[in-house]
Amino acid sequence: MSKKHLFQFLDSPRDMPPKVPLAARVAGSFDELYGSFGQAEASHQAGRCLDCGNPYCESKCPVHNYIPNWLQLVQEGRIVEAAALCHETNPLPEMCGRVCPQDRLCEGACTLNDGFGAVTIGAVEKYIVDTAFAQGWRPDLSKVKPTGKRVAIIGAGPAGLACADRLARSGIEATVFDRYEQIGGLLQFGIPSFKLDKAVIATRRAVLEGMGVHFRLGVDVGRDVAIDELLSEFDAVFLGLGAYRYTDGGLPGQELRGVLLALPFLVQNGRIVTGGDPQGRPIAGWETALALPDLRGQRVVVLGGGDTGMDCVRSAIRLGAASVTCAYRRDEANMPGSAREVANAREEGVQFLFNRQPLEIVGDGQASGVRMVETQLGEPDANGRRAAQPIPGSESIIDADVVVIAFGFSPRAPQWLEALGVQAQANGRIKVGGNGRLPYQTGHDALFAGGDCVRGADLVVTAVQEGRDAAASIARMLRGVKAIPAALTAA
Ligand code: FAD
Ligand code: SF4
Asked: What ipTM goes with this model?
């Protein structure tokens, strides 16, 4: 056990676990980038926490983890208790520790993130849960009394898995359906292995199955089984459908050979990297599986600066591209992608072109470049974001053999929901709560929804939070609470 002193952060710098060497990454390694702390390093890093008394980190964490408390337990070597405490707020802590943009969330709010270096909260969270699982610890449900109630969950992404975890802890039997043959949603098929090793998802599946959660995989609800069947077989249904409608920039030349959409590119590559069938079932909304082009020696340009764009550039580097450029229409400070991922991409050799807006993909049958215009930032728009305004006369062509379009995603509520009284907004988001409904309850009493299909494409941790809180609402509904007074609900 390492001994804490209040000013440990002055003597010990912030440190992350070791990374896969750069040479291996650029030579094609898709291994998870960050290694693990040992007990001594984890304890040392946890000991940097000031216990400042006003844990901004907790407030900024979307699931409100008890961060200083589990950092203290790590220092004392009480890993199993730390793991149990992590799970009190977060059904998937080992995933969030790996993929949360901590620089914008918990670590960004750490009191030490002011010249001293924030506590490495995400890496310690990952250490706690990986270590406890490796030691054989599993959530203890021995005191849970079965209610006899059964709930179907559509979607085995983070929202669906978090919901299943909480239902199981409430004595409600959860059965998770997914059109894919593995659980995880975008954790499995979108996020590359260098950010999240897929063995982590397999471990979580075993943990959930041990808690009594059932999986019915390779089942597309609406095609292989009707929602009405689920509503008659189960007491309630949770929709964790995700957001898969890609933002179409309408660029001339999008149809040229060598132009790829980000998600099919990542999905197909992910299947190959993990030894799966590269011709497996195509991703939702795209009718054909993608024949992945050989990127070796190619000049790759990725359009878009979000997490998806960062995953594309870093995958292209590993696939042997001669050059990889990321073009984004705003400046670096306004980039949506995590600063840590941008730094890793730079380290791996990605070039960034900020303040560039694509106008057209040029080429004759095959893409040969992207015509871009330079931009400057104007006044903030309705969402407070400063709009990128083209600068007349600043157009130029960036050479490219392969262009990857990564403009983001929005949800599309399936048609079969309409007949059930479930409403969606014009942007495709399923409407929940308000007007006396329980939180996350749709217009149909027995249908609840959460994650990207409700909030639009966002983060793993926000999907986890919504799946967790929707399960609490489902449990209330099953206990007979029909609605809450309109005066107490948000409009
Ligand atoms: P999803 O993860 O999309 O899961 C939805 C599931 O529902 C899917 O498995 C789908 O097959 C299933 N489904 C849908 N309809 C049906 C149906 N009718 N029948 C059966 N099954 C159905 N977030 C981060 O926090 N950090 C990151 O680093 C990060 N990187 C990302 C990288 C990429 C490339 C992408 C695309 C997203 C990334 N995100 C990241 C965002 C994050 O992955 C999502 O916000 C999160 O996965 C949403 O969870 P969800 O459960 O709502 O949906
Ligand atoms: Fe930070 Fe995400 Fe963990 Fe919350 S869940 S403490 S935001 S890494």
From this structure: 0.98
